[in-house]
Write a structure and sequence with these properties.
single chain, 127 residues, alpha+beta, Glutaredoxin, 21% strand, disordered N terminus
Length: 127
């Protein structure tokens, strides 16, 4: 059974952490939203987080480059890190998460990143 067909798995959270002043981020937003939305049948919550406008939500997480993605399933952070703003990179990561892969690369999530994932679940209404 595929991961997205299992009702026992929590939904995926795919969050892009960016800033409004970043030209790469502004250009990436439409691609981000359409790529995540294209995963028909997958239980995914996509979030666009402006790290300055939503600084309280981001907390102490250090975002060094844009765009930075956080992909989590429930309490498990599958990926956290800066990515090239290409649809192919995002698509590969999201498809791997939907397929049930448990670690997609990126930095090992520290306590602040895990706490951010929990805050994002609350914001998006995921339990």
């Amino acid at each position: 059974m595929s991961a997205n067909a299992s009702s026992s798995l929590p939904p995926l959270t795919v969050a892009c952490l960016c800033a409004e002043w970043c030209g790469s981020c502004r250009g990436y937003r439409a691609d981000f939203e359409s790529t995540v939305r294209a995963q028909a049948g997958a239980d995914i919550e996509s979030l666009w987080i402006d790290i300055e406008d939503q600084a309280e939500l981001v907390g102490a997480v250090d975002v060094e480059n844009f765009p930075t993605l956080l992909i989590a399933r429930g309490d498990e952070v599958l990926f956290f890190g800066a990515v090239t703003p290409h649809v192919s990179t995002l698509k590969r990561l999201v498809q791997a998460a939907v397929a049930g892969e448990s670690h997609l690369g990126g930095a090992a999530p520290d306590a602040e990143v895990r706490a951010l994932a929990a805050r994002l679940r609350r914001v998006s209404g995921q339990r």
